[in-house]
Design goal:
two-stranded antiparallel sheet; rod-shaped; 14 helices; mainly alpha
Length: 510
């Protein structure tokens, strides 16, 4: 065979090989094409296969029929298979992957959050769309919430959790429901619940499930304007709901949210930085340090900002921690008459009934119930047994109201005035035997009046003139004529005005 013939033969063999390879490729493609569903598609993928709006869009085919036909050509891992064409190249979790099935109508939104739904839903009144946009983009009062807060986010489209089935399932079925899996902030406090039946979320951190929040808040997914300032936690109406020390700061000290959370809201409840709200952290920034110093600084008048400053500067109510000013309220009651004194007493210090803190943060100063516990000081409980009945609002067995030798047991009501008058705690002449000692003899037999032996305390009309010498824990004796003396230790009385010699007040002897 000459050279030209040899060249001609080689060319013929090469052409035959190319025809054999081409035929194999056609057979493979034709075989894949015959397995595709729906059958209306041509033997190779048409442009409609990649058009989202087309009924032949491959996402719609997968939604209704599964991925088995894809596996036959592109492989179990979708990374090439017989045709050496990888699905993963398009369906990996790139920034804009999800938009082809789930969203992308806004050119600036690549999150993949509906609209639209897998069945073409656009309206936010549908479950598939709902409030996705405001959750993903954030709002004036909260930052963005990532998809993973509520859903499983697949690495690529064929994840079994994503499609509801494995690619090789013989009978693939998908309900196209995006199951709620809860993660991150949404369930930071635990217990988050999604009800598909009434399209509502409950017990999510984002809507009130946190300490001091409105745990009963249950927003509907398909309704608008449900997250207003105050829907997830109190904003001053009932600050006790907020727990911690909010009640004292808001109700008692009159602070506003912006005073302690200046980085988040202003004084008109406008959000300064939405990213600091619904972020899992209690962000605090004091607007003016001088506000804190009113209570937390030093000085005798710091108590008035929470407890008083109306009748006096001692800090005794009025007002109460809940704004009470009426004497009929337990928080107010007879504080003023006890602290300032009235016609029969010079006043009793706060320590007579309460623990007085050195500073506002001292242990035992406050607790969540805002009740000022009665601790009884050495003066009010001088003879022991003092008792406070909160339900009846009464004191009993206090020195101040008759619990002393010769006194009259008195149980005054805290919330009623004018109960302590001369004669309410001890006899003033009608039954002097009750006063013990030689009172019976002096008053009944010798017609001696109170002022004659207690001249520094009362006058001849039994009006208390020495407030500091009355209800002071001491039997103060001073004679009207300036003569004689009394020893409180030995109980010896030297005869005033020549009445008698030195005698013991109780025994009558020397």
């Amino acid at each position: 065979m000459n050279l030209p013939q040899m060249k001609k033969t080689v060319r013929a063999i090469a052409t035959l090989k190319r025809l054999i390879i081409l035929g194999g490729i056609i057979a493979v493609v034709a075989g894949c094409g015959s397995d595709r569903i729906p059958s209306s598609l041509p033997s190779t993928h048409s442009p409609a296969w990649m058009e989202i709006s087309s009924r032949d869009f491959h996402g719609k085919v997968v939604l209704s029929e599964g991925t088995q036909s894809c596996v036959k050509c592109h492989g179990l891992d979708f990374d090439g298979g017989k045709v050496n064409v990888s699905c993963i190249a398009c369906h990996q979790n790139y920034a804009d992957m999800c938009i082809h099935c789930h969203g992308g109508f806004d050119p600036n939104d690549k999150s993949g959050a509906p609209p639209y739904g897998l069945r073409g839903e656009f309206s936010d009144t549908t479950l598939a769309v709902g409030a996705h946009i405001i959750h993903l983009r954030g709002s004036s009062m909260a930052g963005r919430m990532p998809c993973v807060s509520c859903h499983h986010v697949p690495v690529f489209v064929s994840d079994s959790v994503h499609l509801d089935y494995a690619p090789t399932d013989p009978n693939p079925i998908t309900d196209s429901i995006a199951e709620i899996t809860w993660g991150g902030l949404s369930n930071i406090s635990g217990g988050a619940v999604w009800s598909r039946a009434d399209s509502s979320c409950a017990s999510t951190y984002c809507h009130g499930n946190f300490t001091g929040g409105n745990i009963n808040n249950k927003p509907a997914w398909t309704k608008k304007n449900q997250a207003d300032c105050g829907s997830c936690h109190d904003i001053g109406v009932d600050p006790a709901q907020l727990a911690w020390k909010h009640y004292f700061h808001v109700a008692a000290a009159g602070l506003r949210c912006a005073d302690c959370h200046a980085g988040t809201v202003d004084t008109l409840f406008n959000f300064v930085n939405a990213a600091l709200h619904v972020n899992g952290i209690s962000d605090t920034l004091t607007r003016d340090a001088a506000i804190c110093s009113k209570c937390h600084g030093e000085g005798a008048n710091q108590c008035v900002y929470c407890h008083g400053g109306i009748d006096n500067q001692t800090g005794a109510p009025p007002k109460g921690l809940r704004g009470e000013t009426a004497a009929t309220a337990l928080a107010v009651g007879a504080h003023t008459s006890h602290i300032q004194g009235r016609v029969i007493s010079d006043g009793i210090p706060c320590a007579g009934c309460h623990l007085v803190p050195a500073t506002v943060t001292s242990p035992g100063h406050y607790d969540v119930d805002s009740v000022a516990e009665i601790t009884w000081g050495s003066f009010s409980n001088l003879n022991g047994g003092a008792a406070w009945n909160r339900s009846a609002a009464t004191c009993a067995a206090t020195y101040c109201h008759g619990n002393f030798a010769g006194g009259i047991a008195s149980t005054p009501h805290w919330d009623t005035n004018e109960q302590a008058v001369c004669g309410s705690c001890h006899d003033i002449g009608s039954n002097p035997a009750a006063l013990l000692g030689r009172h019976q003899q002096h008053v009944t037999e010798e017609n001696i009046e109170c002022y004659q032996c207690h001249a520094a305390t009362v006058n001849s009309s039994n009006v208390v003139i020495g407030l500091g010498a009355h209800i002071d824990g001491i039997f103060s004796v001073s004679f009207w004529n300036g003569q004689g003396s009394y020893n409180n230790t030995t109980h010896q009385c030297s005869g005033p005005g020549g009445c008698h010699g030195s005698e013991n007040w109780y025994s009558g002897g020397n």
